[in-house]
Amino acid sequence: MGHLKRLRIFIGFLKDKASLIKTTFSTKRQTASIRHAVLRATSHRTSTPPSNKRIAAVLSFGHGSRTRASACIQALMDRLHATRNAFVALKCLFTIHHIITRGSFILKDQLSIYPSYGGRNFLNLSMFRDSSDPETWELSSWVRWYACVLERNLTVSRVVGYYFSSPKSSKKMNDDNEEKVLALLSSDLLRELDALVGSVEEISDVPSSLNLQRNNLVHEVVRLVGEDYRLIQHEIFLRVGELGERLISLSREELTQFLDTLKRLEDCKDRLLRLFVNRYKNHGLWNSIHETTTKIMVVAVNENVKEKALMKIWRRDKSSELSGIGERFSEFGQSLQLTSSDTWLGLDRVPLSLSTAR
After folding, report:
1. 253-288, pLDDT tens digit by residue?
2. What is the Cα Rg of the chain in Å?
């Protein structure tokens, strides 16, 4: 098995060299440097994550023209979709993740609109498999999971209006996000909360082979996702707190949606604790969720009691109204009884005369 692994690494090394040579002779000079940077950041040679230097080289193409940024994203996506190697695919996704967290606005913008037709599964790795050996087969499930997490990351960013995994957006959350949340309609808060909880669900749907976290690359992937999760927790905490203050004004449908969303979040808790090995516990968030769930149930019960009381009053009033109508009909019916002489009581018989026109 060790011999096969070394052979696989050597073949990967040759492929990287061949790709670099091909890129040098088959592309324009201005795009050759971009493809070289992408190839070096996503090499076959080691199972370690790309160095900060390699990542920085890729990110640097976001500080020039939009054309260069677009070429960088295109090169990265071409590399991702062409490879059948699990390590290369993970490195490509790892680089994409750094673009989301550290990249320039232009680079993020080009990523968010790729491909032009959009779509939730734009990374298109749901069928990725590397059957080279048992390790890469298990690693393939991490590739699929990581792709789904990043796709959801970008989807949620569109919903909340900014890249929540960016270090700058973290500062913005502390300064401005509370005011933003206060100004939102309850329906918008519920929509954003639903998207954020969907992201947590995607994170918690982690592969069963958690032992692979001993791999340096997988370990770094989980660390980056953990940072995203920490920021998502803060976003959720703000929205749960604000909606908790508005429970009385929420409709029955909104209360049901709110309760269902919190239940989905609680269902993720155990899997998240296993994934992050008890890090990012955030007891304050889970306590807030528990307290808010209890409040929703109390409000729902009170609303049900009110509804039953109103229904009882309505039925009583309706019964009284129907009783009054029945009495009036009874009196009216008595006035319309026929007498024994076939005349209407209280009415004089008037003879009917017919005249003919001449």
Report:
1. 999 999 999 999 999 999 998 898 878 788 889 999
2. 34
The 3-state secondary structure of the chain reads: CHHHHHHHHHHHHHHHHHHHHHHHHHCCHHHHHHHHHHHHHCCCCCCCCCCHHHHHHHHHHHHCCHHHHHHHHHHHHHHHHHCCCHHHHHHHHHHHHHHHHHCCHHHHHHHHCCCCCCCCCCCCCCCCCCCCCHHHHHHHHHHHHHHHHHHHHHHHHHHHCCCCCCHHHHHHHHHHHHHHHHHCCHHHHHHHHHHHHHHHHHHHCCCCCHHHHHCHHHHHHHHHHHHHHHHHHHHHHHHHHHHHHCHHHCCHHHHHHHHHHHHHHHHCHHHHHHHCCCCCCCHHHHHHHHHHHHHHHHHHHHHHHHHHHHHHHHHHHHHHHHHHHHHHHHHHHHCCCECCCCCECCCCCCCCCCCCCC
> If pLDDT is split at 50, 70 and 90, which confidence band does 107 have?
very high
Predicted pLDDT of residue 178: 81
> Is 172 or 182 the better-scoring residue by pLDDT?
182
pLDDT band (50, 70, 90) for residue 19: low
CA distance 275 to 257: 27
Task: Record the pTM.
Answer: 0.78
Query: Computed from CA positions of residues 193, 196, 198, 201, in that sequence, does the dihedral angle turn out positive or negative?
Result: negative
Helices 86-102 and 29-41: crossing angle in degrees, nearest 10, is 110
Question: How confident is the model over 191-219, as pLDDT tens digits?
Answer: 999 999 999 999 999 998 877 778 899 99
